[in-house]
Amino acid sequence: MEYLIGIQGPDFVLVAADNVAASSIIQMKHDYDKMFKLSEKILLLCVGEAGDTVQFAEYIQKNVQLYKMRNGYELSPAAAANFTRKNLADYLRSRTPYHVNLLLAGYDDTDGPGLYYMDYLSSLAKAPFAAHGYGAYLTLSILDRYYRPDLSRDEAVDLLKKCAEELNKRFILNLPSFTVRLIDKEGIHDLEKLTLGAK
Amino acid sequence: MALEDVCSFKERPVQHKWFSFSSLGDAAIPFPKSDYYNLRLETSENNCGVPLHFFIPPLPHSSSFINRPLSSFCPPKNSMTVQRPFRLAHGTTTLGFIFQGGVIAAADTRASAGGLVACPAVHKITPIHSHLVVTSSGSGADCMLWERILIREIRLYQLRHGHRLSIRATAKLLSSMLHPFKGTEMCVALTLCGWDNGPKLIYVCSDGARLQGDVFSVGSGSPYAYGVLDRELRWSLSKGEAISLAREAVFRATHRDAYSGNNVDLFHITAQGWIHIALHHIMLAVKMCDLSLLCHYYVQ
C-alpha cells in the first residue's frame, strides 16, 4: 500500500515517500507527509500500522532532540539508526510491539551520507538504496540495474522517476504523488513533488 | 465528572457484576475486590496505569489478541465473558468539510445493531465546546463515553490554564487517550470539526490515526458520500450550497448503505461558533424506477 524509497549518492541521500493516507479502501488524505525530521540532517521515513507510525516516529524524534538539548551536540545518523533499532527491538517482545517499517537517511559531517533500512522485526541494514512496501518488489530490480555509487543528483532523481513510472504502470494501487527530499551537507532540501498522471 | 476531579472526590471502585468473585481462582488479579458496603475495602492495584477510572471487561482469549494483548492487565483465566447477542456493526455515515464559510458537519441518525435499527434518532454530532463539534462513528457506546471524557478534559484544561486548547491539540490529546486501548475491541472514529484561528477538520480513530484535512467522511456509508462530495465540493460554495451538498451526500449514502438512514443532522461551524441546522427528514419519492427524484420535507 505505502511506498518508501531511498537512494544514496556520493555526497547526498535522496528519499521519497508516497502521499496517501488510507483507511481500508478509502484514501483519506492525498497529501500526507510520511517523513519526520529528526534533526537538521536526519530524516526518518515511517510506514506501517495506523497509529504506531506517528506514535513511534514522534517518540524517536523527541528523544533525538532531547539528546541534543542534554549533550549540546546532535546524534549522528548511525547513532540515531541504532537508537531507533534498539527501541524497536525492546518493544518487539513487549505487550505493545510497534508494527512500523522505516528508512532513516542522514548526512554525517565526518562519515558522509548514510541510508539505513529497518523493518518491523527491528532488523537494521545500511544500504546504498532501499525501498519499503509492495512497490519495493517492482522497483528494487530497477535500482539494482541502474544504480551506481557515483550518481549525480539529477541522475538520482531520474532513477527515482523511473521507479515511480514503473509503479504507475504495474502497481494495482494508485499512488498519484510522492514527496521527495534530499539531504546533503547543507541540510534537508524539499524537491518538487513527483506527480504522475494516469496511464 | 469534572466536579469530581476538581474536588478530588475519591471514587469507589465499580462493582464487577459481570463475573462472580468465586470464579476468580487466581491470586494475581489486578481488580479491586471490594465488598458491597465498603466495610473492609481491599484495594489491590487499581487501574494499572489506565488513565481513566473505568474498567475494561475481561476479553475472550482468541488468537487475534495474542499480537497485541493489553498493556495494563491480564484477564483472569476462568472469567465469564459477556457474549453479545448481536454482531457489533459500525453502520453510519458522517462527513465534514471545510469551505469558505466555515466547516460543515453532517451525519445520519440511525443506530443499527446487526440488522436491527436500534434507534432512528440518535445524535451522532456532539458539541464539545462553543467552537468544536465532533461527529462519531463506530461503536455508539464507546463514542458517547469518549465524547464525554473529551468534554471533561477540555473543560478542565480551560479552567486550569485560562485559555481553550487548540483543535489540533485536542485531537492529539484524544489520540493519546485512545492509544492504550489500541488492539482491543473498542472502535471509535471521530471527526473534530471546529474553528480556532481558521476552520479545522481533524479525523481521530481508535486505531491511532490522526489526520488533518479538508474533507472527511467516516462510516460504512462513507464511500458513497465521498462519491458525491468529491465531484461537487469547492472552496467557493455558498452556505446554502454547502448545506445542500452535505445533505445530498448523506442522503445518497443512506440510500445505498443499509446501516445508515432516517434523518440528517447538520452543524455549521464559523468563527462565531456552531449552529445546528434543523433535522431534515429524508424522503425519497420513487416514481417508477427514477431514483433521481428527491423530495425534501422540512420538519421543524
UniProtKB/TrEMBL annotation, chain A:
CDD domains: proteasome_beta_type_2. Pfam families: Proteasome (PF00227). It is found in: Cytoplasm; Nucleus. GO terms for cellular component: cytoplasm; nucleus; proteasome core complex. Keywords: Cytoplasm, Nucleus, Proteasome. Signal peptide: none annotated. GO terms for biological process: proteasomal protein catabolic process. Its main location: cytoplasm. The keyword Thylakoid does not apply. Gene3D superfamilies: Glutamine Phosphoribosylpyrophosphate, subunit 1, domain 1 (3.60.20.10). Belongs to the peptidase T1B family. Component of the proteasome complex. The 26S proteasome consists of a 20S proteasome core and two 19S regulatory subunits. The 20S proteasome core is a barrel-shaped complex made of 28 subunits that are arranged in four stacked rings. The two outer rings are each formed by seven alpha subunits, and the two inner rings are formed by seven beta subunits. The proteolytic activity is exerted by three beta-subunits PSMB5, PSMB6 and PSMB7. Non-catalytic component of the 20S core proteasome complex involved in the proteolytic degradation of most intracellular proteins. This complex plays numerous essential roles within the cell by associating with different regulatory particles. Associated with two 19S regulatory particles, forms the 26S proteasome and thus participates in the ATP-dependent degradation of ubiquitinated proteins. This is Proteasome subunit beta. It comes from Neolamprologus brichardi (Fairy cichlid).
UniProtKB/TrEMBL annotation, chain B:
The keyword Transcription does not apply. Pfam families: Proteasome (PF00227). Its main location: cytoplasm. The active site is at 92 (nucleophile). One of its GO terms (biological process) is proteolysis involved in protein catabolic process. It is found in: Cytoplasm; Nucleus. Component of the proteasome complex. GO terms for molecular function: threonine-type endopeptidase activity. GO terms for cellular component: cytoplasm; nucleus; proteasome core complex. InterPro entries: Ntn_hydrolases_N (IPR029055), Pept_T1A_subB (IPR000243), Proteasome_bsu_CS (IPR016050), Proteasome_sua/b (IPR001353), Proteasome_suB-type (IPR023333). This is Proteasome subunit beta.
